Amino acid sequence: MTDLKRTPLNATHRALGARMVDFGGWDMPVNYGSQIDEHHAVRRDAGMFDVSHMCAVDFSGARVREFFECALANNVGKLQTPGRALYSCLLNDEGGVIDDLIVYYFAEDFFRVVVNAGTAEKDIAWFNRLNAERGFDLAIAPRRDLAIVAVQGPNARAKVWATVPAVQQATEPLKPFNAARVGVTPFGELTVARTGYTGEDGFEIIVSAMQVDALWQALRQHGVAPCGLGARDTLRLEAGMNLYGQDMDEVVSPLDAGLAWTVDLSAPRDFVGRAALEANGSQRAFVGLILQKENGKALGVLRAHQQVQTPAGLGEITSGTFSPTMQESIAFARVPNGVQPGDTVQVLIRDKAVNARVVKLPFVRNGKVLAA
Are residues 150 and 38 in the same domain? Predict the structure, then answer.
């Protein structure tokens, strides 16, 4: 316990009675009471997550755009308006995923990325090595002085505006995957991005670590429910959003993880991993599964690492859970190419083969069930 890292909100979580767990070396709240209630709060109203274990990294220099054209599988050429954001994978030379991240463009000499907690040190070392080996001459600064709060749900934006009125003027016109920097608020300077990991609208707010507790308490007073990592996982799975280390990693190509849409092979860029992606193509399909009931009863729950049996060969579940929104057991699976939505496959649960229906992802988005 003493070796776990803590976010600036650690004492706040404990004061709220959160059940804390070791999450990739961080002491994090899994729930504050009912995980199901927290899930529904986000789908139906507004909930917030402490995601300060994730790391913001600032990149400054004259060649910063050129750096990201080389570093990322997605194309930062799409980022032309200050505040525009892009989701991308960071690849190794073999085309495997080092991390998935969001990159923000603020100026031609200043970009910011937010990387996953468990990969932050590895990512930063990789960035520094690429910067040095290819002579980009950038300043790369991890910002552990900053914290991040994600406020998600159909009423999330309205409740943030009620909490911090100065944010409304700057962010009301924002389209998804855009951010604004708000300089004067009771909580200091904020970067407010219309992004998230739940399939609902909302904001991810980057704030000074010294001010994050005050912001958290103010959001609570305006009816935003604290939510833990348990609800965050069921929400992201319903929304068809990958979890690094579970749905993809350094030996899995984004083309085999349902992330082909994040890879831009049309622009003439020599990004790291491109040659391997072009040489190998897609080896596996990444699909959604819904467990089928027998006589109205589900014979188990879909979980990671369960074997999937298909006419084309074997596959494996990468993430699985019980969906509070759908009241069904759902999963992501990596299966042989040729398996299509509408197919029926078998999942091995406690040595019994149980039918599951293949569906297109996502399962749920903006409160609506899309996978029937």
Answer: yes
pLDDT tens digits, one per residue of 55-102: 999 999 999 999 999 999 999 999 999 999 999 999 999 999 999 999
DSSP structural state of residue 81: S
Question: DSSP secondary-structure letter at 41?
Answer: H
For residue 265, count other CB atoms closer than 10 A to its CB.
14
- Quote the CA–CA distance of 207 and 114 in Å, as a whole number: 13
Structure tokens at 186: 């009771």
3-state secondary structure of 164: coil
DSSP class of residue 175?
P
CA distance 142 to 114: 10
Q: Which residues contact 187 (CB under 8 A, 6 or more apart)?
A: 164, 207, 208, 211, 212, 214, 215, 218
Q: Token pair of 213, please?
A: 């507790």
Instruction: Kindly list the distances between the CA atom of residue 162 and the CA atoms of 147, 153, 216, 240, in Å, as whole numbers in the listed order.
Output: 21, 15, 13, 30
The verdict on residue 271 lying in a domain is no
User: Residue 90 and residue 115: Cα distance in Å, rounded?
Assistant: 10
Contact yes or no for 271/70 (Cβ under 8 A): yes
Number of domains in the chain: 2
pLDDT by residue (tens digit) across 21-53?
Answer: 999 899 999 999 999 999 999 999 999 999 999
